Structure formats: C-alpha cells, structure tokens
Amino acid sequence: MQASLVDVEVSVGGGLPRTVIVGLPDAALSEARSRCRAAISSSGFEWPQHLVTINLSPASLPKSGTHFDLGIVGGILAAHGSVAQGRLDDAVLMGEVGLDGSVRSTRGVLPAVLEAARAGIGHVVVPMEQVREARLVEGITVHGVGTVRELAAVLRGEQVPERLPDVVPIGTVRREPDLADVAGQDEARWAVEIAAAGAHHLSLSGPPGVGKTLLAERLPGILPDLSSGEALEVAAIRSLSGLYVDGVLPRRPPYSAPHHSASVAALVGGGSSIARPGAISLAHRGVLFLDEVPEFSPTVLEALRIPLEKGYVELARSRAATRYPARFQLVVAANPCPCGYHGLAGRTCTCPPNAVRRYRDRLSGPILDRIDMQQTLRPMNQSYLRKAMRRASEPSAAVAARVAEARARQLHRLAGLGYLTNAEVPGPVLRHELPSPQGIDLVDTAVTRGLLSARGVDKVVRIAWTLADLAGSAVPRTQDIRAALAMRRGEDVAEVRCG
Ligand SMILES: [Zn+2]
Q1: 353 CA to middle of ligand 1, Å?
Q2: Which of 23, 115, 134, 450 could hold 56 in an S-S bridge, CB 3.0 to 4.6 Å?
Q3: Domains detected in the chain
Q4: Residue 363 Cα, ligand 1 centroid: separation in angstroms?
Q5: 27-43 pLDDT, tens per residue?
C-alpha cells in the first residue's frame, strides 16, 4: 500500500560483456536481465557489448517482481546513447517487458504513482493498459507505452498515440443486486438493515434455500458510498492484487465471498517472497461473506481473529513483512446441521446426533465472539410465499436512504469521540460517555440469569443505539433494548418488534 521509490542506475563499460544486477533482487527480478536484453534487441536497439552493471538503490530494501523492467530498459537506452538522459531524471517507470519488446501490465501501479506524485516527480511511464489506473492520481503527467519503441519515443519527448482498452467504467455502471428481488423474509431483511445502519457483524442461519446468500449479497447495496480516501484504498488493494482498475474510483463498498475451501493465504493474504492481499483485504471498506462458515477450516477462521480486532493484517514472509488494511463488515451463514434440515418441520435430519453438536461447536470460538447479531431464517410456507411474491418487496434504494439517515445521526453523536459507527464504539465509551438507554435494567437481568455474557452487554447496547438511530430517537428506548437482546441471542424478534 505504501510504495518506495527505487533508483535504477546503469553503468556501461569496462570489463568483459556481461550483465550484473545488484541491490537485493529476488529470482524473478534477476531474470529481468534476459527479458530486458531480448526486448531491447527485438525493438531494433543495441544491447551494449560491454560490462553492464544495474544497481537498484536503496540496496537495503528487498526487491521483488517484474515491474522494474521498464526502468532498467530506460536506463540502458540512455546509458548506451539511444535516448537522452534528461527525461529520466524526473520520471518513474513501471512495467514488465516481453521478449518481443512489448510492455505488459503489472501489479501495484496505483500506489506507486501515488508515491511518485507525493515525492514531486513530474512524469510517470506505465503500461498502456494501466493509463486509466495511473490517472486516478492528480498532479503528475502519465505516459502510456505499449512497446519499448514507444518508451524510447516518450523519452525523446515525442507524442505516443494512446490506445486505451475499451471498457465500461465498472465504478459507475455496475448494478448491485437489489433487495426488491428478495420475496418475504421480512425479519431477516430488517436484520440486514440494522447491520448496515450500525456496521454490525451479522450471522444468518437457516436451512438451504431460504435466502441467506441473497440477503448477504445485498448488504453492500444499502451501505453508504465510500469517501474519496476510502475509494483510493479500495482501488490500491485491487491494483496490488493484479485486478483491473479503471479510470473511475470505486465508490461502492466491495463484496468478497471466499469459498469454504479457501486456504489461509487466500483468505488473509499470502505468497512466497512478498505477500499479496487476500479476500479480507479485497473486502476492506465493504462486506466479507463466509457462507457455510462451519465448513471453513478452524485454522482459517482463527486467522480472522486479529484482522477483525485491528482492521488490518500483518503478513511476515521470507523477504519482507507487509501490512494490508482489512476493515470489513463480516456476515457469516450457517445451516442448522451438516445436512441442513435439523429441527425443521416436515423434513428429516439425517445427521448423527454427535455430528450436529460438532457442527455447531465449530461456529463458536473466535468468530462467534465477534458476531453482534444472530438472525435465524425459516423456510416460508407456500401460501405465505405466494402472498409475499404478489406484493412488491421494498427496493434497496429505500432501505439505503434510512441507513444513510441513521449513519448521519451516529456521525453527529460520535464525531466528538472520534468514531463513525455504533459498532466501533468501545465498551467504556458506551458506558460512560453516552447517555444511558431506557430499560437498561433488562440487560442486567439477562446477565444475572446467565442469558448474556458480560461481553454481550456492550453488543446489545450498540445494537439498541442503532435501532434508536433508525427510529430517529435520541436515546434507545426500552423496546430497542428488548429487540437488541433478542437479536444478540438469535431469538425470534417478530413479536418484540410489533410490541
Ligand atoms: Zn442434519
């Protein structure tokens, strides 16, 4: 996420013809020698018939990847006199070269250009396909090159015609799935709305086919737009993951739903020499959905614990330690048992009793500890479903408007304390800095009766605040506390809501 500028120095002359790269390169980078040499020759330039020394400084910084190719080629062309040195003094070059002299896209262009602009560099040369990505950064001139010949032209100060890929800007046009497509399940829709309004982590449970995934996919669609700063972070992570970044900042919160067979590396990030971002970082500022969460390996779930607490993940690899942001809203879904039909009228669960208990136990521990709200979805009977299909479900836009209002109330209340959402407010602040909710004695009673853990108390109060924000009430009312208690414990809230 934070790029470092690397100086590429090229010296030609003295000694037998060979090429040396110094400055802590890894294996892929050492291969740059062969790639750059072939690319220069096939572009009609000459590779120097002398000792060529390429120094990448600072030498103390471990270097990895193929994106130094373009800088090395530029250095050779200048050292050999094919182009003038001048332009290179004020330019950052980034890109991989092919043996045929083509210039290929590379990971991490956006964070690199951000750093170049911050350092006051005037020009940046990037692969043609990534011009739009680089232009997200203001205050620096972006040149796109598709070949080594075009690089030479840019370094001579000539204009290179731009051939940008035809794309529909995803950030503006992509349609998010809409809540209007979900029939019935009013209570679960309400839970998703509350989760969105207060940024609470949510668990959805119920038999297969009741709409758990449908609802989870629709959560990002009712969240507020990202700020420019957040959007840049999201785009930078995509860039580092090698995903396409277009010329429009992604204003909608991302959604990441890794499969339960995902490895620790796929989930939290990994890689051999320098770690790449994983699914949790691709969900940064958005939603991470874990479907069939008990099927995830316990090691994978355990790896989520620290990122959930800190909002970032630290990955130490052989060559470097990296830190990627990972502040996401977690939604998990689970069936009641491995076969999916335990406790369901009209269906027979085929699981051995032990298996049901083991399955549920897997949900406990680090993840369940972090979940604020639990919602159970029941299959809808045919007549109800027919009725539900007839009346139109409320569209996401209407729900998003209420969420935005509730978020604005939180912002107003919490601004002085330094928080944005109810979910972020730490227990002590909740207890001592904010007014006490009405009916708080209900919570005390639940603790005394052993129905709620001490940790659960703060979660209940946070949810109650969100309910108050959605209702436009200045403090949580007794009915908010009652509903929050039910949601925390995964009870039926239908009658509570009506009462
Ligand atoms: Zn079963």
Answers
A1: 9
A2: 23
A3: 7-155 (3.30.230.10), 179-394 (3.40.50.300), 425-499 (no CATH)
A4: 15
A5: 778 889 999 999 999 99
